Each structure stands twice: as structure tokens, then as C-alpha cells.
Amino acid sequence: MTVPFLRIGPSPLHEGAEQHLISMRDGTRLATDVYLPASPRKHAAVVSRLPYDKASAYMAVHKIAPLYLERGYVFIAQDVRGKFRSEGDTVPFVHEIEDTYDTLDWVAAQPWSNGSVAMVGDSYHGYTQWAGAAGGHPALRAIVPRVTSMEISDLSDLAGNGTDQALCLYFANYFAHMWVDKNLYAYEVDWSVRPLRDLFEDAFAAIGHRSAAVDSVISGRPLVDPFRTRAPLAGRPVPVLHRVGWFDNLIDASMRDHTAQLADPRWREHAYLDADACDHHTYHLDQAPVPPELDHGVHESVLDAVLPRYLGRTLDFLDAFVGGRGDPGSFPRAVWYQGHEGERTAASWPPPATRELRLHPAGASLATASADGGTLTETAEQRPTAVRWTHDPLDPVPSPVRDPWVHLQEYPDEQHLHGRPDVATFTGAPVEVPLDLVGPVGATVDIETSAAAGHLFVKLHDVSPDGSARMIVRGQCLISGQGPQSVRVDLGHTGYRLRPGHRLRLQICGSDFPLYAPHPGTDGDLWQATKFSPAEQTLRIGGDRTHLTLTVSDGSA
User: Fold this and answer.
1) Are 472 and 443 in contact (CB under 8 A)?
2) In the beta sheet, which residues pair with residue 30?
3) How many CB atoms lie within 10 A of CB 359?
4) What is the largest CA-CA distance in the chain?
5) 157 falls in which pLDDT band (50, 70, 90)?
6) How much is the CA Rg of the chain, to the nearest whole Å?
7) What does each C-alpha distance from 108 to 27, 47, 368 come to in angstroms?
8) Which residues pair with residue 140 across a beta bridge?
9) Rounded average pLDDT over 528-549
């Protein structure tokens, strides 16, 4: 079948940028745009290394660079190896430590450089900052990784084999569109194709190229993860401003980066957190779901209004730790946006004045009978009971959000899914005073599947007085078919206010398609599976068998 696609190549270069082709140690040249301040003196430089076309409207470098120039920095944007105007093979992650080091070497040697370099950027260009830390170039003074993680180069979870994670299809979808060749490709995927290994075959045939990243994962031989042998935290410590989004699909991995830095005596004093109630693409809870007239991805004037908020904390951090125009000692250790309430600051994350709140599901007989299901209370039922449902891989629970990278742009009401017979729900009573979630959220689940293996998905929702239910946090994992098991599911961190009259709802089910592969029930390779059979899932509650653990403010109910 012929798949229609749109090939998107490099955009025209911007006025005010001077492009250089910088040679790496193996002779590969990387396209690099330099934006210089008007002042002739030497400057610190800010580098962003990205795979998304440094000249594209999507990256908006022509709008971002002037904000750095106003603060006296040289701003540098580079297409990473194999993307858009840069030379080399199109393979993610593998070369980023060496390429980042060689780029910083070039930057520090320029006549306009004062020898100090910082790095900034989101997602993959947050990852290249961690690659800079792993390389340990002496010119590197600070990094500001946003909505990213050191873990994203470990594609073993994407492979879906021998890991404790559900098989994530939207990451494979990303690689199949972005990491085929130098260009970007837009096309629709037919998610009904089986086996899953063939999902992108028609598109690759139409394009005339394949994605090395997708092929390596499906074959069971993921790409080399450079951080396995050269971990960023093994390098020379530099100040780090972790910028995360509570509704970013990478929030759990992002926060693992931050907690790992806090646990390292060498890096602890260099760790700072800035968390916003936003998603991967900076859509904010205050405007979700985002109406078309307020969409910064559509309207240039809206983007202009968003950029100062997007960059403000980054610029202040660089001034304090790189530019010599601020006091590092007064920069706050943790700043976050408490959803539905506003910005807060503390000396640490989680803030000192927090406590654990444990909630227990009850009412097993009602759990799959309606959207509200059973109850969620602080007092556990002592008598053990069980909830059973059938996970059918041919009729999986549909993913409520079309694109998880822009969750708050859509911000779907998930109430219609909660009445399905293969979704177990437990809903608390309306709170009378605000309940502030401030820190990590986790669930312990006593689960059993009749199949050889399966997936477990856990979500926490805010249920409004009108009955609409919107996700606060989520987590997922792989479960085995070896009898009852107690599974700990990390739901990430959040700063979120449950307002009076609202209720918390715990959702537990076995599928979330097409964001994740529907588990066929076999213990083999999910990419190759061709046989699918329903499986009975059994959730046991009562006592502490299954419970939800929240971190809440001491002032909360």
C-alpha cells in the first residue's frame, strides 16, 4: 500500500545568523548558526544542539536568540549529526558525547568567546546537554535541560523485551518520522497493522529510506547507549537547572535525573529545579484544553507572549552562574507551579512541610460497574476482595489523548473510558478544603494475569463536580503471568491542587492503545506477535494489598 507522506527539509537560514560547518574529530561537518550581540567585547556563549532544524519555525530560534543577545550572550544553534544541514549518518544518541565536546571546543576557541559556555534546550537538545556533562569539556559552566532525561538513549524499554516497562509505541512513532534521514516526514500510521514490526514498513517503502533507530529496536539490538560507559554524573559537576513539566510525558524520567543528582554528593549542591504545570510543548494547565486562538503553535503573536515565561528562569539562571550578573547563592533551589494555585518556592524538593497520605481502594464489586467505580479512602477494608476483568488485545482500552507530547493542548475528559468493563476505578469523596499534592506519587498494586505476561496501567484523575475526569499523573509497567504479585508503579511527581468539591479517582487497567502496544498475552517478542487471546486480570484489594501513596502539603486536608 502506498502511504502519502510530506517530506520536510531544512528551512531558509535566518538573517542575523552566520552558518558555519564545524568539523568533528572524524571529519563530519555539523551546520552551526551563530548569533552575535552588537557589543564587540568577548562574551559567554549559549549552545543548543538539536535534531529539529535550527532554522525552522517550530524551533523559533530567530525569536529565542534575541532574548539571549539582550543579556549579552552569543547564541549558537546546531543541527546534530545526520539531521537537516549537518553531515553524517542519521542515528540518534550514539555520537553526542564526542560531537558536543568538539562543538564546545570550537566555540571556546572563537575570537568572540570569553571561554565560558552554557547549554540549553528541550527534549533531545536537553539530552545533548547531558552528553556535554558526560564529555566534561572544561569550558562548560552550566546546563539547563528541559523536559528531557539521561534515560532516553536507553532504547531497551522501547524494544519491549526483557524490561519492566510497557511497550511504548509513540516513541517508536517519533523515531519513524524524525530519524529516517536528514529530513522530517509527516504521514499517518495505520495502527491496526500486525505484527507490530510492520507498522512503518509501507511508509519506509514510500519514502525510500528506513529508520536505523526503529530497525535496531525491532531487531532486539538497540543502539549503543553512550551513557552506559560514560555516565553524565561521573563527570565534572556543573550547575544544573532541571526544567520539567508536570504534564510532560517524560516527567517521571526527568525527576529521576533530579533525584539522582541530589543523591550524588558531588552533584547535590549543583542541583536546581524549575517545574511548571505544562506539557512537553509548553501548553499550560491554566489554558487547557487550549483554544485555537491561544495556541502558540498556530499564532506567532501568542508565541511571542509565551517566550518570556518559557525562557525567563533559564536566563536568570545563566546570569547567576555564567554571566556574572546575579547571585548564585540567592537562586532558589526549587520553584514550581502548583496547578490551579500558582507559583511556589522552597529550599528543597519535595518541600520540607509535606507528609505521606495513603489511600486505599474499596468496594470491589463496583469497581468495573460505572465510571465512579468503588471508593478511595484513608481507611482500608481489612477483608480481602478481588476485582476481575478481561483484557482483550483486540479490543484494548483506547488512549484518550491523540498526541502525548501536547497533552494539555488536548487535555481530554477521560470519563467516557471509566465506565468500560475492562477499567477498574475507585473514586474518593469530594474534598471540602484544598488538597495540595506536592511531590512523588506511587501505587502498590496486587495484580495477577492469567496470560504469560501483560501490562499494567495506573492513572490518578481529578474528577470535577460536573463529572469530567482529567489525568493528574500516570505510570505503567510489565507484569508476569507467574501468579499474584505486588507491583510498585511510579506515577512521577506533581504539584497540583485538588480544589474543593473535586474528587480523586484511581484508574487501573491493562491497555492504553495506540500509545502503548496491547499486550497479546504471550511472553515472546511483542513486535513479532501474531496470536492474541483475552486474559483475565485479577486485582486484589483490602488491607495494604493495593494502595495509592501521595505526597501532600502539611496544610492540606
Assistant:
1) no
2) 22
3) 21
4) 76
5) low
6) 24
7) 19, 11, 61
8) 117
9) 96
pTM beyond 0.90, yes or no: yes
Return all residues near 490 (Cβ < 8 A) that are at least 6 apart. Answer: 252, 440, 442, 475
Tell me the pLDDT tens digit for each residue of 528-537. 999 999 999 9
Rounded Cα gap, residues 406 and 281, in angstroms = 6
Other residues' Cβ atoms within 10 Å of the Cβ of residue 345: 10
pLDDT at 159: 57
Cα distances (Å, whole numbers) of residue 302 to 101, 280, 421: 36, 17, 42
323 grid coordinates = 554571566
Grid look-up 506515577 returns: 491
**Percent of the chain at pLDDT above 90?**
93
Query: Is the distance from CB of 341 to CB of 97 less than 8 angstroms?
Result: no
Structural contact between residues 381 and 542, judged by C-beta atoms closer than 8 angstroms: yes
Structure confidence at residue 355 as a pLDDT band (50, 70, 90):
very high
Backbone angles phi, psi at 127, to 5 degrees: -60, -40
- Per DSSP, the residues of 190-225 read -TT-SSGGGTTHHHHHHHT---HHHHHHHTT-PPP-
Q: How confident is the model at residue 309 (pLDDT cuts 50, 70, 90)?
A: confident
Read off the pLDDT band of 555 (50, 70, 90): low
Q: How high does pLDDT run on average in the chain? A: 95
Block residue for cell numbers 554524573: 233
Is the pLDDT higher at 48 or at 522?
Answer: 48
pLDDT in the model for residue 162 = 47
Q: Which amino acid is at 201?
A: E
User: What count of Cα atoms within 13 Å lies in the side-chain half-sphere of residue 201?
Assistant: 10
Residue 290's Cα: distance from chain center in Å? 19
Q: CA 85, CA 282: separation in Å to the nearest integer?
A: 26
Triad 353, 359, 360: Cα angle to 5°: 165
Answer for the pair 373, 250: CB distance below 8 angstroms, yes or no.
no
Grid cell locating 450: 492469567
Q: Which set of grid coordinates corresponds to residue 360?
A: 486505599
Task: Report the pLDDT averaged over residues 226-240.
Answer: 96
The three state secondary structure string of 489-538 is EEEEEEEEEECCCCEEEEEEECCCECCECCCCCCCCCCCCCCCCCCEEEE
- How far is Cα 50 from Cα 198, in angstroms, rounded to an integer? 29
Average pLDDT over residues 314-327: 95
Closest CA to 196 of 221, 214, 222: 214
Residue type, 200: F
Contact 473, 491 (CB under 8 A): yes
How is residue 85 written as a grid cell?
544541514
Q: Cell numbers 543523591 correspond to what residue?
A: 263
Residue 365, phi-psi category: left (phi > 0), alpha (psi -120 to 50), beta (remainder): alpha
Report which secondary-structure segment, H or E, holds 8: strand 6-8
The conformation of residue 411, written as its DSSP 8-state character, comes to: -
- Nearest by Cα to 9 from 50, 56, 48: 56
The C-alpha atoms of residue 307 and residue 310 are separated, in whole angstroms, by: 5
Using an 8 Å Cβ cutoff, are 119 and 47 in contact? yes
Stated as kind and residue range, the H or E segment containing 285 is none
* Main-chain dihedrals φ then ψ at residue 45, nearest 5 degrees: -115, 145
